[in-house]
Amino acid sequence: MSGYVPPTSTAAATTTTSTGEGRSVDYTCGDCNAAVSLKRGEPIRCRSCGHRVLYKQRTNRMVQFEAR
Amino acid sequence: MVGQAELDRRKIVGINAETVTNVTSTDFPGQWPGEDHSWDLDFFKRTFNVKFHSNDQFDSSFSLIGLDASVANAFRRILIAEVPTVAIEDIFVIHNTSIIQDEVLCHRMGLIPFRGSREGLRWMHWFQKGNDEDPEGSTHNDYNVCILNLQIECAWQAGGQMRAVNGETDPNKLYNNHNVYARDIIYEPTGQQITRFADDPVRAANPDILIAKLRPGQKINMRMYAMKGIGADHAKFSPVATASYRLLPTIDILKPIIGPDAEKFARCFPKGVIGLEPITREEGQREGSEYKGHEGEMKAVVEDTMRDTVSRECLRHAELKDKVKLGRVRDHFIFKVESTGQWESDELFLESVKLLKIKAQRMKRALAALMR
């Protein structure tokens, strides 16, 4: 039904920087809904409320569908 | 030569309690000895009749009297499946964090009826999708694709969070853009569309269609390609909500229905079909009349068979079933055309006539080529 469109750029959309070790990924806090950006090796923890459940954000990749 | 009464009788489809009789038409050559029923344009012109019952912008009802079921059905089918409209076909979902999934949302978008300038629509070309024979298909151009955008994000109203803490639950008082409506879809005219759709841009025919609901932080961002298509391809392209016909019902009261029976008889039909009239002095005193001695009582009379639904309820009552004959007129088609908004209802029917004519001409050309 839906055609999958491969990503146009190789960098994953949720990453803000793509330089190896220093890249951080954005998450959403499961408790206070704040945006949390984590680097590799950091404790999984919200910076504002300390909640330990974080949600990954939806990809920014465009997806194509047929309206049928 | 057969009389008019016989011809009228042949037109009636009999409706009994459990059977329907005399269904097929018999007015074609070779059916009746000594009668010529070959199709004749002058005869058709003389007998054919069109009567309008109601003609609102998007909902019209009219009768076509004196044509064959095959032609009436052709019009109905063309209305549903072959009159073109625009509908969203391809959707590029850039962002959708709403509760409703991409696939479902896209399907919903496709079903929203759109309208735009009729001249613009006539000018638009078909978009051919890639298939086995032509893997490329058409290219996207200003003459075959209308670009629509939907970009909306829900956010808290000023002070909304505070009100939520205090127990307010009405989303209208808490959030902005929490309902996504069809009017939020924005048309982006390109190339020639800028002039062709200048007066009557492509937009949702019903701006209040609810597409999705959002909560703060959720957003929808998509780009949509609307294309011209026909209902045979997908129902979303159909210009009508319903296009249907029914045959005019007939009710013949064979024996008088008098007094309480008449009231019961009237209740067997929708309101306005059967009326009650007092039996006159003259009727009640005439010798040999079935009304004799019933002067002043009520009798049932047929008022408006058009309103009848042919429920056959009257045939379920022993005291009524032998006094009435139900039927339908085989060549009286009561059409009902409900437009989805692109075309006006009466215009739609003319459009279907035009399409049938084009088909007939195509057939004629093909036959001529065959004979050569």
Automatic annotation (TrEMBL), chain A:
Gene3D superfamilies: RNA polymerase ii, chain L. It is found in: Nucleus. Belongs to the archaeal Rpo12/eukaryotic RPC10 RNA polymerase subunit family. Residues 1-23 are annotated as: Disordered. Its main location: nucleus. PANTHER family: DNA-DIRECTED RNA POLYMERASES I, II, AND III, GEO11084P1. One of its GO terms (cellular component) is RNA polymerase II, core complex. Pfam families: Zn_ribbon_RPAB4 (PF03604). One of its GO terms (biological process) is DNA-templated transcription. Residues 8-19 have a biased composition (Low complexity). The keyword Transferase does not apply. The keyword Metal-binding applies. One of its GO terms (molecular function) is DNA binding. The lineage of its organism: Eukaryota, Fungi, Dikarya, Ascomycota, Pezizomycotina. Keywords: Metal-binding, Nucleus, Zinc. This is Metallothionein-I gene transcription activator.
UniProtKB/TrEMBL annotation, chain B:
Residues 59-366 form the DNA-directed RNA polymerase RpoA/D/Rpb3-type domain. It comes from the Eukaryota. Signal peptide: none annotated. The keyword Iron does not apply. InterPro entries: DNA-dir_RNA_pol_insert (IPR011262), DNA-dir_RNA_pol_RpoA/D/Rpb3 (IPR011263), RBP11-like (IPR036603), RNAP_Rpo3/Rpb3/RPAC1 (IPR022842), RNAPI/III_AC40 (IPR033901), RNApol_insert_sf (IPR036643), Rpo3/RPB3_RNA_Pol_subunit (IPR050518). GO terms for biological process: DNA-templated transcription. It is found in: Nucleus. GO terms for molecular function: DNA-directed RNA polymerase activity; protein dimerization activity. HAMAP family: RNApol_arch_Rpo3. This is DNA-directed RNA polymerases I and III subunit RPAC1. It comes from Lophium mytilinum.
